[in-house]
Amino acid sequence: METINKVLLKGADCALDLGDGSERALYVNQDYILRKLGKIHRGISLMYTYYPNDKGWPKRASIAFPQKDFSGAWNYPYEDYFPYRGGVEGLRDDEPFKFMKEIRAHGQDVVLTLTIDPSLTDDYLVTLAEDLRPYGRLLIRINHECTGTWFCFNKRASYEELAAFFVRCCKVFHKHAPNIKLILCAGMWDKETGKVEMEDVFLEAFKEADIWSGDRYLSLHFGWPGDVALKGGNSFYSADVDEVYDVGKNTWKRLKEITGQNKPMVLSELNADGDVSGPFEQAAMMKHFLERLQNDKDHWLSALTMYQFRDDGRLGLEITDPNNSEVGIEQPLMTMYKEQLHKPFFSSKIESVGKVELPLNLRWGGSEDSEGFEMKVSLKQNPHFAEIYFENELEKMNFLVEVEGYWFYKKPGVKCIDLMTCFFEKPLKKPSDIKIRFFTPPSDGMNHPFDGKDPYKAESGPWLTDYYTEIKSLPRLRFEEEPVLMLKKYTK
To answer: What is the pTM of this model?
Structure first.
């Protein structure tokens, strides 16, 4: 029997999440993103809206209420995100559930932003909690940027009412879906006052939240898509990167002071806008922020979300091809971000905890807390072939595979995956022992009760946070250090 070690997957010093779709772009599938970046994220951020009692619902706002002359991205009765089709509709195979399943099957946690009609009663909120409870350690951000004026929920309720609504959401979710953590994305620290914006109004909400958050862009064309950002215009801004960094850090410090608590701080939307800064400065601004974060001994930020992968404007690692929305045009930001994503500071820790034998019962808790196993192969030089074969019962199973910091996905039914992209980008320079790590997130993206009951109706228990897979046999590795047949050597 080949020697294998058990490994533990743990969180990064600062996790990276990735925005995937919003009012500005369509969702991009996780296989494409993984192949472009070579690594999974802690979480994937989705943005949806829920106003089930409104006229026009469940059509998207811009479809239900088209503007003859564009008057603003938020000048609709409800936010122009894609509608959340669960809740009272009960379409749990529609959006966003089909995307949530794919995200979790690929070993990432779901970070769901949901703008909600603040007049909804608790019975509506209970239904939302029941919808989301089978999705493991999901994070939900409700009515974000709530100290602003632009979102539709701000036009329906006072700030005091929005704060009370968030507290009510926390109580409902903590009772009916205790596996889910709630993010409060509210005001941030102000240099002149030394306080967080509206900190008194939202104090109880900050205390009730599981995670504190803020959104802050290094530059932003907020007039998009209604106009073009041109010199002398007034529909955009650019900020000093260091000042934005200090605002985020001081928000965390101030919230600890006024609440008496120490909770994780995240930045749920962060980027520079290529409409304003241009594509080269956009990448340089984000690089400066990320490098300052790595050099800060305080480690105050637990995660940040790159907004976003593909964007119809210029807020993405790719911009949408106007000829075909399924095609992305890579920006300089992509190269910079991929390099940062693979740095140790932003990478999950994988710890070997000793030898184990088959059969294995592996636990998947989430992208920051899971169990796997490790196989080793010794290579004298860079391989020409690097493959993994999944035979018999393994073919039907779901696997994430990590090799030298690069991640690969095998969905159920796939027999073989090719690892060579790792060695294209990071060729071996000397003889090395290569460790191959295997993890088993849920193949359908959902957690299921251990007794087989319906996850939407079963009682709370460990199944809400942990998913188990039994491994009875090992994958077969094929590594070749020479071509299969070579009449003459052309490479040096």
So the answer is: 0.96
